[in-house]
TrEMBL record:
Membrane topology (UniProt): Multi-pass membrane protein
Stretches assigned to the EamA domain: 7-130, 146-285
Signal peptide: none
SUPFAM superfamilies, per the entry: Multidrug resistance efflux transporter EmrE
Transmembrane feature ranges: 7-27, 33-51, 58-80, 86-108, 120-137, 143-162, 174-193, 213-237, 244-264, 270-288
UniProt family annotation: Belongs to the EamA transporter family.
Keyword Transmembrane carried by entry: yes
Gene3D superfamilies: 1.10.3730.20
Keyword Magnesium part of the UniProt annotation: no
InterPro entries named in the record: AA-Vitamin_Transporters, EamA_dom, EmrE-like
Species of origin: Cellulomonas iranensis
Keywords (A to Z) from UniProt: Membrane, Transmembrane, Transmembrane helix
The protein, known as: O-acetylserine/cysteine efflux transporter
Length: 309
């Protein structure tokens, strides 16, 4: 994986890490299932009207949309709405990386090198250490929000596999058409679970400080996290094995925890900063290009023997 592609993957991690703060702000105004529907509907409507569908089998578009768009955010937004701290949510959701690597090895027969396996293991140990520390703090996440976020990570992993199998030559259009899948099922879930009254009430008070912050968070989620971040991620997944790209998502909680501390004043103990450095080290170890052995120099051509005349 070239250095410039690794930098792009790191940029995606930054945009996604900041997105957890944006989601937190949006959830102050909109119920979680409706917010997922709105997030993708804003993209889906102009996509259907203006963007040609990529030359990809429908099953991969649907699989990508259901895994990445429906399952991931249904469980993530529900977890955050039921008490999952923003920084911890950004951490636990990165279970998608080991899920992706393991599912790709099992279902797509992608080979996992010892270095990649060690890098994932180191990063998982760092993530696990942060999770254990967070779970022991006062006011930490309960078991249910953690389990819901893990389900979101599994949904993301399934979407990664569909994205990889699509092998599109138009990754940005695939992202746009993936966004067509979630709005209708998520709106149906919102009306059934949250109710029409809650949906209607969420559109009142949009000019208040809370409403404006929620709209700003939604705009960031749509324009930066989805269009830019997911577009770059899809482009990278079409060019490199899942086991190489997916570990970069483990950088997201480092950004998410830092952003939640700066914006939401969530405390970040020194031990979590140290464990975040472990996560970074694991990602770098698992994604670094393999060293090429220098080719042996050609032996000098033998000098032909001179025969006597």
């Amino acid at each position: 994986m070239p250095l410039r592609h690794r930098l792009l993957a790191a940029l995606v991690a930054v945009t996604w890490g900041l997105n957890f703060v944006a989601i937190h702000l949006s959830l102050q105004q909109f119920p979680p299932f409706l917010l997922v529907a709105l997030r993708f509907a804003v993209i889906a409507v102009p996509t259907v009207l203006l963007v040609p569908r990529p030359r990809v089998a429908w099953r991969w578009v649907l699989g990508y949309g259901l895994g990445f768009g429906v399952l991931q955010f249904l469980f993530l937004y529900l977890a955050m709405d039921t008490g999952m701290p923003t920084g911890l949510a950004s951490l636990v959701l990165q279970s998608s990386a080991p899920f992706t690597v393991l599912l790709a090895a099992a279902l797509l027969r992608e080979r996992l090198s010892p270095r990649q396996g060690l890098g994932v293991l180191v990063a998982v140990l760092g993530l696990g250490g942060i999770a254990v520390h967070r779970a022991g703090l006062d006011g930490g996440a309960t078991l249910l929000p953690v389990v819901l976020t893990l389900c979101g990570g599994l949904g993301w992993a399934l979407g990664n596999l569909a994205n990889r199998q699509a092998r599109t030559d138009a990754p940005f259009r695939l992202v746009l058409w993936m966004s067509v899948v979630p709005p209708l099922p998520m709106l149906a879930v919102s009306l059934l679970v949250e109710g029409p009254d809650a949906v209607a009430a969420s559109f009142r008070g949009l000019t208040s400080p809370t409403g404006l912050a929620a709209l700003g968070g939604l705009a960031y989620t749509v324009l930066v996290a989805t269009l830019v971040g997911t577009g770059l991620w899809t482009w990278l997944m079409t060019r490199h094995p899942s086991s190489v790209v997916a570990p970069f998502s483990m950088l997201v909680p480092v950004v998410g925890i830092a952003a939640s501390w700066l914006v939401l004043r969530e405390a970040v103990p020194p031990v979590e900063l140290a464990l975040g450095a472990v996560v970074v080290g694991g990602v770098l170890l698992g994604s670094a290009p393999a060293r090429r052995r220098p080719a042996p120099q050609d032996a000098p051509a033998p000098v032909p023997a001179v025969t006597a005349g």
